[in-house]
Design brief:
The chain is an alpha/beta fold and about 425 residues long. Helix content is about 45%, strand content about 10%. The protein contains 16 helices and 12 strands. Bound molecules: D-xylose (XLS) and calcium ion (CA) (2 copies).
């Protein structure tokens, strides 16, 4: 049992400030606006940070010792770690997990050997899923860590590398089917550039679209029913990542006729890396019906880096949940904690507290969002701001019926516009009322 002394995390609304290994707000079966909290939030634990990350960073090696690790890359260690992970999920009470293929099993000398290693661990994963009822929110392929992917995978300048990535992806999709993944994520690990002198950007994007088309064809062939998701990120590891932000990815999909096959997996820490506010990409993708899932984490606002911290800020969680509730839910996506404990947080207890605290923050975000939406005061003020578009010339411009001549005539008759106050502070104060 890992760790001894920590049991199931309980709902305890009257917990004191120092009791952080409880849920004060997350009551999985509590109904909010017609759905249980569990159904709105669809929490998922990510395997790579929580079970493969041991606190190393570019300046130093790992600081974290886990009781199940024997410091080898053996299959036995891989299986012991997976069992520990499912024990963790059961104690935390989350219903989903996510992984990269290479998080689960060691890579061999050849693709055949790698696939056979993976199969061995996938068999165990299938059994543990069945036993615990924990399901796979999404799987993804790690197409960025191995040196072969140094120039990218789908956008490598070397077609042999792209073919290898495609072969790896084929296996990844088969694994997704086997484990009943509800989604499959494409994060463009090294799909980008460091220098425009050695890069043909148009060729890269054409090849990426071709890579996605092969994935769609195979998805249909093997009957994978999950949702394909692309995860934008602005920079890191490359200087410019092609999937820069939600608007860039949506334009790419549109340009290559791929829109209907994908939605977006938005990670707010990537949104801030793009220089946008935390909730920007969540709102943009949702506005176009493209918000598929959220990698629920945060950076440090003063840094902007991709620090993958646990989301503990109630304001940000409220903004995200407001959008999720307004679009009617996030399923088949979820809130995946793509987050790692700080390398100084070395106890196993910290991993539990981090997840429980983030789940509670989102539960509070959900309650706040439900209040904002039920009372409708913010929405009413927003509607008032746009009132001029509902009738007359505004409605004619919006519907595409108006002409430049007609607008000229309107101005000649009605004179200069006199726009009303934007009342930003009023909106901010109203929002603060709910958090
Ligand atoms: C890295 C990404 C990555 C994806 C999955 O920055 O967040 O972890 O979510 O490959
Ligand atoms: Ca992510
Ligand atoms: Ca990240």
């Amino acid at each position: 049992m890992y760790p001894p002394g920590i049991g199931k995390v309980e709902y305890k609304p009257d917990a004191s400030a120092s009791e952080t290994l409880v849920f004060r707000h997350y009551d999985s079966q509590q109904e909010i606006l017609g759905k249980t909290m569990e159904d709105w939030l669809r929490f998922s634990v990510c395997y790579w940070h929580s079970f493969r990350g041991l606190g190393s960073d570019p300046f130093g090696s790992g600081t974290i010792k886990r009781p199940w690790e024997d410091d080898t890359d053996s299959l036995n260690n891989a299986k012991r770690r997976l069992r520990a992970a499912f024990e963790f999920f059961s104690k935390l009470g989350n219903k989903y997990w996510t992984f990269h293929d290479r998080d689960l099993a060691p890579e061999g000398e050849t693709l055949a050997e790698t696939n056979s290693n993976l199969d061995e661990v996938i068999d165990l994963a299938a059994g543990l899923q069945k036993k615990t009822g924990v399901k796979l929110l999404w799987a993804t392929c790690n197409l960025f860590s191995h040196p072969r992917y140094m120039h990218g995978a789908g956008t490598s300048c070397d077609a042999h590398v792209t073919a290898f990535a495609a072969a790896q992806l084929k296996k990844g999709l088969e694994v997704a089917v086997r484990l009943g993944a509800e989604n499959f994520v494409f994060w463009g690990g090294r799909e980008g550039y460091h220098s425009l002198l050695n890069t043909d950007v148009k060729a890269d994007l054409d090849h990426l679209a071709a890579f996605y088309n092969m994935a769609i064809a195979y998805k249909e062939k093997i009957g994978f029913k999950g949702q394909f998701l692309i995860e934008p990120k602005a920079k890191e590891p490359t200087r410019h990542q092609y999937d820069f932000d939600a608007q860039t990815v949506m334009s790419f999909l549109h340009q290559y006729g791929l829109t209907k096959h994908f939605k977006l997996n938005i990670e707010p820490n990537h949104t801030t890396l793009a220089g946008h506010p935390y909730e920007h990409d969540v709102i943009f993708s949702s506005a176009y019906g493209m918000l598929g899932s959220v990698d629920a984490n945060t950076g440090s606002p003063d840094l902007g880096w991709d620090t993958d911290q646990f989301p503990m800020d109630i304001r940000s969680c409220t903004m995200v949940m407001r959008t999720v509730v307004e679009q009617g839910g996030i399923a088949p996506g979820g809130l995946n904690f793509d987050a790692k404990v700080r390398r100084e947080s070395t106890e196993l207890r910290d991993l539990f507290i981090a997840h429980a605290g983030a789940m509670d923050s989102f539960a509070r975000g959900l309650k706040n969002a439900a209040n904002i939406i039920s009372e409708g005061v913010l929405q009413k003020s927003l509607n008032t701001r746009y009132l001029s578009w509902n009738s007359g010339t505004g409605a004619r411009i919006a519907s595409g019926e108006a002409t430049l001549e007609e607008c000229e005539k309107f101005i000649m008759e009605c004179g200069n516009p006199n726009p009303a106050s934007g009342r930003q502070e009023h909106f901010e104060a109203m929002f603060n009322h709910y958090i």
